[in-house]
Write a structure and sequence with these properties.
Blueprint: E1 8-17, E2 22-27, E3 40-43, E4 46-54, E5 57-62, H1 64-69, E6 80-85, E7 104-114, E8 117-123, E9 137-140, E10 143-146, E11 149-151, E12 154-159, H2 161-166, E13 177-182, H3 184-194
Antiparallel strand pairs: 1-2, 1-6, 2-5, 3-4, 3-6, 4-5, 7-8, 7-13, 8-12, 9-10, 9-13, 11-12
Length: 198
């Protein structure tokens, strides 16, 4: 479980097909110091298991299923990635509950300055609009954000300066893919209501 509060932005060192899985190597400064083999780390919002680490690097095995369902297929050496260690039971919950289980990819439709503010509009996975509500929560590339607008499967958010500096969302452009995780409570509520007796 994560909060969507990114701890640091790492960089992809290598991402290549191995004999059993894709192998992802990331350089980072903060996150490697506080992990153990087998720990969960959100990489662009996708929960991955630490296979190996040293003082400045993390290694993960990525299944083809994960690569296909996320924006990982576009990862290349040098790409910035958002990193967050799993939520500790004694920690603050500053964002919202994020599982790291990506619902699909979204396409950046608009990313622009509007006065001093920054506006990001994303076309999410087909049918995902049913889990969106204005002022609700969504995770884009693992960043917990407040939904400002909803139009069908499209959502818009406003990004504060800290988010632009501390995450990779500041370099996104129209046409880029982002990982989308909808609010867990919305998904569970929908399923529970579907089983209600008339």
């Amino acid at each position: 479980m994560f909060t969507g509060i990114v701890e640091e932005t790492g960089r992809v060192v290598a991402f290549a097909r191995g004999p059993e899985a894709w192998r992802l190597q990331i350089s980072a400064l903060v996150v490697p110091a506080g992990v153990a083999r087998g720990d969960s780390v959100a990489v662009n919002g996708c929960c991955l298991t630490v296979e190996q680490f040293d003082r400045g690097h993390l290694w993960f095995d990525v299944l083809e299923e994960t690569r296909r369902r996320t924006s990982f297929s576009a990862l290349a050496p040098g790409a910035p990635v958002n990193l967050e260690r799993a939520l500790r039971a004694d920690g603050r919950l500053g964002g919202h509950f994020v599982t790291g289980h990506i619902d699909g990819t979204g396409l950046v439709v608009v990313f622009e300055s509007r006065g001093a503010d920054h506006y990001l509009r994303v076309r999410g996975p087909a049918g995902g609009g049913r889990w969106l509500v204005a002022k609700g929560a969504v995770a884009l590339d693992g960043v917990s954000l407040t939904v400002a607008e909803v139009a069908g499967d499209e959502l818009a958010v406003w990004l504060i300066p800290h988010t632009l500096r501390a995450t990779n969302l500041g370099i996104r452009r129209a046409g880029d893919l982002v990982n989308v995780e909808f609010d867990l409570l919305a998904k569970h509520t929908e399923k529970l209501l579907a089983f209600r007796q008339p």
